[in-house]
Specification:
By secondary structure, the protein is an alpha+beta fold. The protein has two domains: 2-268, Beta Polymerase, domain 2 (2-Layer Sandwich), CATH 3.30.460.20; 275-330, no CATH class. The protein is built from seven helices and seven strands; from the N terminus they run βββααββββααααα. The protein has helices at 41-51, 66-69, 116-123, 139-172, 179-224, 228-293, 309-330, and strands at 2-10, 13-21, 33-37, 70-73, 76-85, 94-103, 106-111. It has a seven-stranded mixed β-sheet with strand order 2-1-3-7-6-5-4, sandwiched between helices. Helix 3 (116-123) crosses helix 4, helix 4 (139-172) runs antiparallel to helix 5 and helix 6 (228-293) packs antiparallel against helix 7. It is a multi-pass membrane protein. One of its GO terms (cellular component) is plasma membrane.
């Protein structure tokens, strides 16, 4: 599917108009942004012929080598990043490859998923770059607006995860008297920590990929002496991104602490169970010894002839069991 964006003048302000393009329709010359979503081969060829670029395949977008993600070819700059998608609780979070292609005054984006950041930007595309009205709409300004939307979305995700982790932290250290409920809560906590850690690690990976793009753009703009306002926007966005990376690292560290704390509580529960079995073994050891002595088959055993021999043996076994238990209670080992 191809979406085109054209600059239009509304009340003296240049804004973007977004609409879908059928395969048989011609691409207008004033198009500044071509957004390809799960394109067919025919759509790729159409855009390639119009823009003079080569649209990368989905497999090429999955490469992790920097030389395959950031490069210049035939006057076009190719930049591939990975954006977080499917952040809802009902879906498994994933990373979607997005390729940004800048050639002249035109931007081409290629994607096979619809990250929330793109939806956020396209919803406010009527305000040009998403940063408010601008006198000149270009592919570079649109790219800056898209990257800013990605950073805004990453901030929202990290803030939400931080709040959830805080609630989970309070739940971990909450005192629960019911052992069965406590064990179930610990298991649920471990699963939740795993989900949060997976999401934050993928968000951090996305931020690292976008940082590469911003560093590449910053170097290019500085070399080509791009407009000062554009260079300042890139530097400001880069600072915001790096602060989010630090926050993501902090959240990862907190998750590791909570994971260690949860595993420590699980070990305490297991130790309590083992301690219970150890105490039971010690409590029943003396009565077992007494029963074993009087269970031997010898002819000469004086106690066997006593009329009160059996009650005496029972009393000895009870006393032998009560004394270790009372000692453990006195030492507060139970």
């Amino acid at each position: 599917m191809i979406f085109i964006h054209q600059p239009v003048s509304v009340a003296g302000t240049m804004q973007l108009e977004r609409r879908s393009l059928e395969l048989q329709d011609a691409i207008p010359e004033d198009t500044v942004w071509l957004d390809l979503i799960r394109p067919s081969r025919e759509e790729e060829l159409k855009v390639e012929g119009f823009s003079g670029i080569e649209v990368p395949t989905r497999e090429e977008m999955k490469d992790i080598e920097p030389s395959e993600l950031l490069y210049v070819e035939d006057g076009a700059r190719y930049m591939t990043g990975r954006l977080l998608s499917k952040v809802s609780d009902s879906e498994e979070p994933g990373l979607a490859g997005i390729t940004f292609i800048l050639r002249g005054n035109r931007l081409v984006t290629v994607r096979y998923e619809e990250p929330q950041a793109f939806r956020m930007y396209t919803q406010r595309a009527g305000r040009a770059t998403g940063n408010g009205p601008t006198a000149v709409i270009s592919g570079e300004s649109i790219l800056a607006g898209l990257i800013e939307a990605v950073i805004d979305r990453a901030a929202d995700v990290l803030q939400l995860q931080g709040e959830r982790i805080d609630r989970l932290s309070a739940k971990i250290f909450e005192v629960q008297d019911d052992p069965s409920a406590r064990n179930t809560a610990l298991q649920d906590t471990l699963r939740a920590l795993g989900r949060h850690n997976d999401l934050i690690s993928k968000q951090r990976e996305s931020l690292v990929s976008m940082e590469r793009i911003l560093l590449s753009l910053s170097a290019t703009y500085r070399t080509n002496k791009a407009p000062r306002e554009l260079r300042e926007d890139v530097r400001s966005t880069l600072r915001d991104l790096q602060s989010l990376e630090e926050h993501a690292t902090f959240l990862s560290t907190k998750i590791n602490f909570l994971l260690d704390a949860t595993l420590g509580l699980v070990n305490l529960e297991q130790n309590n169970i083992i301690k219970l079995f150890s105490v039971m073994a010690v409590v029943f050891m003396p009565p077992t010894l007494i029963a074993s002595i009087y269970g031997m088959n010898f002819k000469t055993m004086p106690e066997l002839e006593l009329p009160f021999g059996y009650p005496l043996a029972v009393v000895m076994m009870v006393v032998a069991a009560v004394l270790p238990y009372a000692f453990f209670r006195w030492k507060r080992w139970l």
